[in-house]
Structures are given as C-alpha cells and as structure tokens.
Amino acid sequence: MNMKICFATQNVNKVNEIQALLGNQFELVSLTDLGHTEELAETTGTFEGNSQQKALFVYQKYGINCFADDSGLEVAALNGEPGVNSAFYAGEAKNYAANNALLLKNLAGQNNRHAQFRTCITLVWNGEVQQFNGIVKGTILTEQRGTNGFGYDPLFVPNGYEKTFAEMSKEEKNKISHRALAVQQLIVWLQQQAQ
Ligand code: ITT
User: Fold this and answer.
1) Where are the alpha helices (DSSP H) in 63-166?
2) Which of 8, 78, 101, 171 has minimal Cβ neighbours within 10 Å of its Cβ?
3) How many H helices and E strands in the chain?
4) Catalytic status, residue 70
C-alpha cells in the first residue's frame, strides 16, 4: 500500500515535481488535500527553524507524516542577507524585480560577489525530526541575464558554470540546485523507510 506523506506547501508545482521523483511507493498529499488554506507561520528567523515550524504544525494538527521546506539566497558581503527574508527583501512579498534591484543596489561597488542558495527540508516522520540541507555556491552578477526560473535566478551564476540559473533550462537547474540537492537526500531517506 502507498504511504501517505504531506508536503506542507501551497505551491502545487513543488508538490508535482517531488511526487514525480518519489515514485509510487509514496502518495504526496498537499495542504489543499488536507483542507488547509491558511499560510503557515514562518517566524523563527532561520531556514531550519521555519521548515521545522511548518512541518511540526501540520504533523500535530493533522496527524500525518509531513515535510516542509524553506529556501533563500545568502550573500557573503551582506552578512548572509537576504536569507530568510529572500521573498520579501524589497518589501512586498515575491516582487522579484524589486528584490533583484535592491540586491544590485546593496552590492554596488562591492568586489566580493560570493553567494549561496540554501534549502532546508524538515521531515517529521512518526514524531521524529530529520533535516536535509542543500547548498549551491556561486556569484552575483552586476546585471541580470536570462528569463527562465524565478526570484534571484537572473543574477546568480553557480560555481563551475558560465550561465545564470535564469539562462539554464529547468532540467539543467534541477540537476544542481539547492532544492534538488535537499530533495535528493529526502528521497533517499524516504525510500529506505519503504524497504
Ligand atoms: P513557498 O510558497 O513554497 O514558500 P517561495 O516562492 O516563498 O514558495 P521558497 O521559500 O523556496 O519559495 O524561497 C523563498 C524566496 O527565496 C523566493 O521567493 C526567492 O526570492 C528566493 N529563492 C529560493 N529559491 C530560489 C531559486 O531557486 N531561484 C531564485 N530564487 C530563489
């Protein structure tokens, strides 16, 4: 029989993407499937804390094994900002153009362009907490390049590549991204439980 597990996100694309990777031993259940429509609180100030806060909330409220993620961009010369504030760096949530403009402004004249994208996934499995981290290191350009992807992708060139994330196809980015690296670890862990 399929094992049901909730992915605590409102983002249907993320659910579909991970369901395809997991295969049919697991049946992913979304927040919508559980009848949950409110935004989950993310108030801890860290990726680890926020993903755990979301996963534990759903586990405790609905009694279903659950995982949640939190991601963002950490820029060395800005002491790790925008970090957990990545989605609403310039104010309004997910205004990608404004966020990119503010990032460029805050890095103007800065030679240190090192940055990393990071994802933390927290899984609550039968009440026990497991965490999986994915990191991709790179540099921030001085102007945007490319139109694929979302968020800070047009400004981020991963180490060892010439293209920005926004110049890569979805398939290329999904092989090396922070989210992909964390998801791969989650999948290995879950598939071990199913054996
Ligand atoms: P949720 O509904 O799942 O929370 P989200 O868009 O807020 O979706 P994340 O929490 O994964 O997604 O990421 C927070 C922000 O970090 C996101 O809005 C972007 O600004 C940035 N970010 C995360 N992953 C990124 C990526 O792969 N490429 C570009 N920007 C990214």
Assistant:
1) 96-106
2) 171
3) 5, 6
4) yes
d(CA 34, CA 73): 30
Closest C-alpha residue for ligand 1 atom 5: 87
Taking only the tens place, the pLDDT of each residue in 61-110 is 999 999 999 999 999 999 999 999 999 999 988 899 999 999 999 999 99
Mutate to test the pocket of ligand 1, among 75, 86, 103, 155 (most ligand atoms within 8 A of CB): 86
- When divided into structural domains, the chain yields a total of 1
* CATH number, domain with residue 59: 3.90.950.10
Containing domain of residue 28, as a range?
3-194
Using CA atoms, how far apart are residues 60 and 121, in angstroms rounded to an integer? 17
Residue whose CA lies nearest to ligand 1 atom number 21: 72
